[in-house]
Amino acid sequence: MKPNRIRKHPAKATVTAAALASWVLVQSVSVPSIAAAQDVIPVVLHGEDNNKPYAFLDADGAPAGIYVRILQAAVDKMPQYDLRFENVPFKRGMDLLQSGQIMAFFPPYLRDDRNWVERYSVPILSETVVAICSKDYVLSHDLRVFPDDFTGARFANNAGYRLAGEDFFDMVAAGEITLEEANTTESNLRFLMAGRVDCYVNERMAILAGLRELAVDKEQSRNIDETAIIGQEFGYVAFGYDPAGYWPYRDQFANDLDDVLRQMRDTGEIDQLVVEYFAY
Q1: Taking CA 239 as the corner, what is the angle to CA 95 and CA 86, rounded to the nearest 5 degrees?
Q2: How many Å apart are CA 161 and CA 248, to the nearest integer?
Q3: Which residue numbers delimit the Solute-binding protein family 3/N-terminal domain (predicted)?
């Protein structure tokens, strides 16, 4: 019996050695992978939830839009980051950014009075801000200079947006223009088409996307005219202050993002993503 046991020991020892060697090999391969995974930084970018076609939630509640596609494509080139999007109404997003509760928000325009925004990304997309009005209002008014020639008009506006400019909002404060605000482009377009307001200011492609969402046909669209080009604006990712140090990686992420966005702009990739979006 003893000799049998003695003869079995070397076999057991051989198996154990082989298993040990296999285990060491697995560890030598997997440890770097684990370390690499631990080095990936989770990043949350907050965007608008109802700014079609730029940043919104689709029918399934998933982040969608041109900026979402561009930023996802950019961070895909930055494997050191794991990106997640969260979408909220514009005004809430800006309030959260100002109070330091979120790291970043997109795609606000650059405004001097937002001195609580510590830094912006490089410009991402150029957008054209326009005023549109009902055909009846256009035919009954001489509209040459915005906003001076719109005295007495009733305007719709997306809550929190300042696209119409300071002169416009000075006229609102003086009671020379009446302003009604809703959270979505579609709601404001409904106000306009129902005659509840005379005019509406927003970015041109956002208006077109809203009309498409409402299934406005050509006959209906003839009752709306573009009356003024207010200006060209760029959309950005805005980064607020971080006094509590919640996001120690913020500046490195912002720098890396800028580098990639510049490359995408210079190679035409951003333009291609926009074309593909509207062809989808």
Answers
A1: 65
A2: 30
A3: 48-278
Q: pLDDT at residue 9 above 60?
A: no
In what helix (H) or strand (E) does residue 269 lie, and over which residues does it extend? helix 269-279
- DSSP code of 149? G
Alpha helices in 81-237 (DSSP H): 90-98, 135-139, 166-173, 185-193, 204-213, 218-221
Confidence of residue 21 (pLDDT cuts 50, 70, 90): very low
β-strand partners of 201? 131
Amino acid sitting at position 268:
G
Number of H helices, E strands in the chain: 10, 13
Q: At 70, which amino acid appears?
A: I
pTM beyond 0.70: the answer is no
CB 67 within 8 A of CB 105: no
Radius of gyration of the chain measured on its C-alpha atoms: 28
| 269: CB partners within 8 A, 6+ apart | 73, 263
- Say how far apart CA 155 and CA 253 lie, in whole Å: 39
The continuous run of DSSP H or E covering 252 comes out as helix 250-267
Segment 165-193 shows an average pLDDT of: 96
What CA–CA distance (Å, rounded) separates 82 from 261?
Answer: 17
Locate 254 and state its tokens: 């912002």
Using alpha carbons, select from 236, 26, 202, 8 the residue that is nearest to residue 122.
236
Q: 146 is written with which tokens?
A: 């915005």
Nearest 5°: the CA angle 106, 40, 64 is: 30
End-to-end CA distance of the chain: 78
Q: Which domains, from first to last, does the chain contain?
A: 39-124+236-279 (3.40.190.10), 127-234 (3.40.190.10)
Q: Is 206 exposed, middle or buried (0-12, 13-18, 19+ CB in 10 A)?
A: buried
